[in-house]
Amino acid sequence: MASVDMRVYDEIEALEAILIEDLAVKHDDGVPIIETVVHPSTGDQIDLQYVCVTLVVKLTPDYPESSPEVFLKNSRGLDDSLLSDIDLKIKEKLDRHVGNPIVFELIEIVREYLTKWNLPSGQCVICLHGFVKGDVFIKTPCYHHFHSNCLAKHLINSKKYYMEEYEKLPNWQRAQSLPYQQTCPVCRCAISFDVKTLEEAPPPIESINAPPFRLTAELKALQARMSAMLARQVERGGVVGSGDDGPPLLTISTAADNEEPRSSTSGAQRETNSERVVPSTSTDNTPDQPYRGPYRGFNRRAKPGRRGRGAAR
């Protein structure tokens, strides 16, 4: 087990007195690893803390005579460019203060950046527009950010979908179903917001000033690829049509199936061919009787009277 300079214990004791519950100290072979969640300085107004990041300081066996390893993780509301700036500032601080306890000063560097840039960067994952000055946005308890108007629409639609699915259930399943719960669109943590209040917020500024939609060459190419994929799924019986009332069929095929050329036989002949491979309960696979096992191209989810392309040819 490595020996630790007494100055390290004094520094950790001082940090615990200042940060109290926001500090966690672990040990790796006797060497401390310090973790703390850093927030912007907003006084008593915790609700105005829109960004945060976890600072990890892994001390070296001979710290403070050598620089510790420093990591930033679990950032919320911060983009990569800002995290890179913070990381660069930390490295500059470490290079200039080798030989002195430095952890508290590192925490202050991160806090100063977060206080200066206390506005979520990146995009609202619902509308895909960024956050700009003048936007009305909301922060969830799990530190994810959305335009208030966008989150209102998401919660309204998610509840509508829940009720539609709930109405499809038989009574005995309804009695066992959990009630509707608002969840974060990113991490699915439980949240609780007044949807009517969120609805009153204006839409994102970028959505108002956005240019009209144009169908670019890239979008056309994407549409072509997706159309080809959909056509293949329809051909294999994996897509439910407008006249179907159940989930997509499970289509199972083999290499031999894929190599066979398309047949031009009539519908009656195809029906006969399909019936020849319906699974048999018999286990007698004598040479004069072809194998009739349950996995040879058999669609196990097909309903009575309804044959999909899952049946082997």
Can you offer a commentary on this structure?
With 313 residues, the protein is an alpha+beta fold. The chain is 37% helix and 11% strand. The chain has helices at 6-19, 80-96, 103-116, 148-168, 171-176, 195-199, 205-209, 217-235, 255-259, 267-275; strands at residues 23-28, 31-38, 52-58, 69-76, 137-139, 145-147. The strands form 2 sheets. The chain has a 4-stranded antiparallel beta sheet. Strand 5 (137-139) and strand 6 form a beta hairpin. Helix 2 (80-96) runs antiparallel to helix 3. It starts with 5 loop residues before the first helix and ends in a 38-residue tail after the last helix. The model is unreliable at 247-254 and 263-313 (pLDDT under 50).
Overall mean pLDDT score?
78
- Please tell me what the overall shape is: elongated
Q: Give the SSE string.
A: HEEEEHHEEHHHHHHH
SSE-based structural type: alpha+beta
Q: What is the assembly state of the chains in this entry?
A: single chain
Strand content: 5-15%
Number of strands: 6
Q: Strand order across the biggest sheet?
A: 1-2-3-4
Low-confidence stretches: 247-254, 263-313
Q: Helix share of residues? A: 25-40%
Tally of alpha and pi helices: 10
What gap, in angstroms, lies between the N and C termini? 69 Å
Radius of gyration: 30 Å
The largest sheet, given as strand count, sense and whether it forms a barrel, is: 4 strands, antiparallel
